[in-house]
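Give me the fold.
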Amino acid sequence: MPLRLRSLLCILLFLFIALIPILSQTSDGSGEKERQSTVNSNSHPPSPLVELNEARDVDPLDTLGARIDRKPGAVANIKIPTSAEVGENWETVLAPGTPGTRIPASMALDTEPAVYPEFTRELLQLQWRPLDAIDLWVVRPAGVKNPPVILYLYSYPSENDRYINTEFCKKLTERGFAAVGFVSNLTGHRYHERPTKEWFVSQLQEALSTTVHDVQFILDYLTDRGDLDMTRVGMWGDGSGASIAIMAAAVDPRIKVLDLINPWGDWPNWMAKSSLIPEAERANYLKPDFLKKVQNLDPVKWAPELRGREVRLQYIDTVNVTPEAAKKTIESAAPANVKVVRYADSTEFFRNVAADGKAFDWIKQQLGSAVVPSRNVASEGLVAPKGTSPGKQGGCLR
């Protein structure tokens, strides 16, 4: 056989072999359909634009094999554990176990702290629920021993990226306060192994209850660290984060001050009118069975338990994620000690509250300022929290 002919045949054979995988995928489109049926670990399900977290005896990952499910409908062959399987009651706001003893500081996986003149920032990972590791940011002011602490929980959908911002961390720690940030369940990095039809609202019972439990677990962890003033704890919440803050404070007296912006609640009215709900799904969330599952997780029920606390409840009239009827119901449920503030629009809110970094001034004033040193001592006497070993996970986030 001539050399040229043999070369041509070799080229054709090579091209045929290279095309086999492509032809097998396009024959019925199954590969693309399978990819479209799930979302990756850092994505959100489709939703309209929004206007404006028991000590375990066994590592959950050790039992991952027991949750492999080959049945149709399982996502990536991983079955999401039910509340019964993880020993957690999603119908109640009270976390399982004895407060103060559930989550020791030794549970945390930590990165090397990032040290700045004004603050020290840590990124830790905590996990007490299978397949649900929580990224926890702890930012401490420089030179302040046992500073008061504020938990920050932004609304769904949100991420933790803000805590990488140096200027933002400076604002959080101004006047000697520590800041602790995380995201709700089924939000940000905690949304994974789910079909696209499941999202924060469709799984509202799970999302709310588990995150209310998370707040109590996180407070246990912070207590066991031994480097924060746990007699002065506040919580700042926005949207769904504000709803979670109300319920967590109602059952955990360690939270002394609440600053709430646009909390969700009054579920029958909220589901009927909220701008967050896709119209194609709204009827599903107005069904009696769905509303019954979340009736014990309504801030309207728990707001009266906030007596004796310092609480500010703020609503922006033009933000319709929480409809007006629901806003009024939540305000009516609040006890007399709650300071209710209304803003005509977001412009008024930003001018009076958020401008010039004043958004967190009120909650700090209620907790009382810490003693702030006159010189920068961020690198002096830096001690790792009890039960952690800085640097064992490598690298700090700056």
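The two ends are 66 Å apart (CA to CA).
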